[in-house]
């Protein structure tokens, strides 16, 4: 077992990683897709184009990163009921996605936003390398359609500097297909199952000379496991590429995302385990829901230069939110930006040198209104405010191969981010006008080494600086009495990591140890989760995040019956150790929100057109629900089964069964300060997980 010793160094653990990987060949653990750390790019019709390279080239480029990264080929999730981001990221160690209901999730990488029970903090979401986050850094998951993806790239922490991201959690890049990278020119899919879930998906793509286009649409309707959890979504993505001249290509992206999600709210721990399908009474009385309409347009124009390639990205996002919770939150806003990015390889004193340079400038405004919630409709207006955010960033990263198998990486990002808040006041419950303006500035450096002793093995270590700027959900805090702008500090951290990845015969492995020393971490606690009031945020003076991220895949048997079949064992383990350090209130307590250990085991049998894969998701002990560490959710184990069969060329039938034992468990919590002091509706801070469910689908490609 790999152990992170509290207070001990992480870098010396690098010395044991290679022996660990070798020993794992005999341990019976493991599981990942094939990691290609070297080799030429793909050729042929699947090779992609200048704006969007083919999948082999995307994977090869990702694994040249000096640091922990992960690549998911979306082809691997085609035969699952992939409805949320968890369904495509659950095999990535270090990434935690906790489901509440529908598309309502908590996404955390290495504890980013660990205690944040809503939306997104500390991670940049990108689609095709272009930001999805709003100008203040906040983000949602409602416009992510797993059936519209071709690959997912995960850059943990400062390893996301290749996009200009330097937050604690890093970046998740969602790569959509083009007509040149699509799995088939036409895809039709119908699936559904438990809780009256029905989903239809289509994808059409064509190439015509220098032009190509693709259109993808998904309509989902589901009643949900719990009462008052109905989900209705319509997602449409399209892109059009055109080769303007040799070495010059432009690609336009467009998307429309419509969501209507009823909110069942949180329950007490007892209710979650005894009657998990019931609705929170306040959620029902207020007809709480989340209705989102988002439109996005973006462009990437790429130029192949004598040295390297220049990409110029531009984008605009319009988002409208109608969100009746404790009050009706009614918002409408725009985000827009431009980002040139150059990457190239050249020689310095006879040594190979890989360099990245980029700029990002983006801004946005959001009209934020609030009203008394009258059974889900607007009552008297209580707030009339304007939120404005802007950022200017410059970044660079350099890899100098001082030896043919050893690269020295250095990099840095300079940034200036502004948050301006204006509230006119004069309304019931919000009489005083407010105006606030905060600018956050800084430099985030990075240094590391990448050693490739064998073509299929890499060893790395790096030190990065991150800085998370508060978004308006942090800065504008509210309770039943009033709304106040709180001038929080930016969260700052130094993160050191060491790891190895690669392939030894039948074994594929990815192991990383990390430790982040954090100042002014943005920590949340629910003021009254039972009523749906957004959590308050404070700066914790000093905290520490450290952990272990392990994924192994081992081919246990090949040609098991003489028919070319295989048996593969996959093991994913995420160890989280997030705690306060000498805090005046919480001492060295664990930060509430995420469980300490998360394990996933998959045993896959494949025989030509048939696959069968039993799964086990195991959380030995649940997460603490409060920072005082007086109450925690129980651990749980979930059994599942995935199966698929190609019944004829181009036609695949699949089955996805989950929680086969119908276990009662808690999937997420809204962190509070001290659960021992809660009673009544205030104790409703737990979200029960879904019960037994079975989904099936049919996919046709031609």
UniProtKB/TrEMBL annotation:
Q: Tell me, what's a Pfam family for it?
A: TonB_dep_Rec_b-barrel
Q: Which domain of life is it from?
A: Bacteria
Q: Where in the cell is it found?
A: Cell outer membrane
Q: Name one GO cellular component term.
A: cell outer membrane
Locate the TonB-dependent receptor-like beta-barrel domain: which residues?
A: 208-660
Annotated coiled-coil segments of the chain: none
For this protein, the record's Gene3D superfamilies field holds:
TonB-dependent receptor, beta-barrel domain (2.40.170.20), TonB-dependent receptor, plug domain (2.170.130.10)
Its predominant location is membrane
How does the entry describe its membrane topology? Multi-pass membrane protein
Q: Could you tell me which residue ranges the TonB-dependent receptor plug domain spans?
A: 63-171
Task: Determine if Transport is one of this entry's keywords.
Answer: yes
One GO term under biological process is:
siderophore transmembrane transport
Q: Name one GO molecular function term.
A: siderophore uptake transmembrane transporter activity
Q: What PANTHER family does this protein's entry cite?
A: TONB-DEPENDENT OUTER MEMBRANE RECEPTOR, TONB-DEPENDENT RECEPTOR YNCD-RELATED
Q: Which family does it belong to?
A: Belongs to the TonB-dependent receptor family.
Protein's name according to its UniProt entry:
TonB-dependent receptor
Organism the protein comes from = Methylobacterium variabile
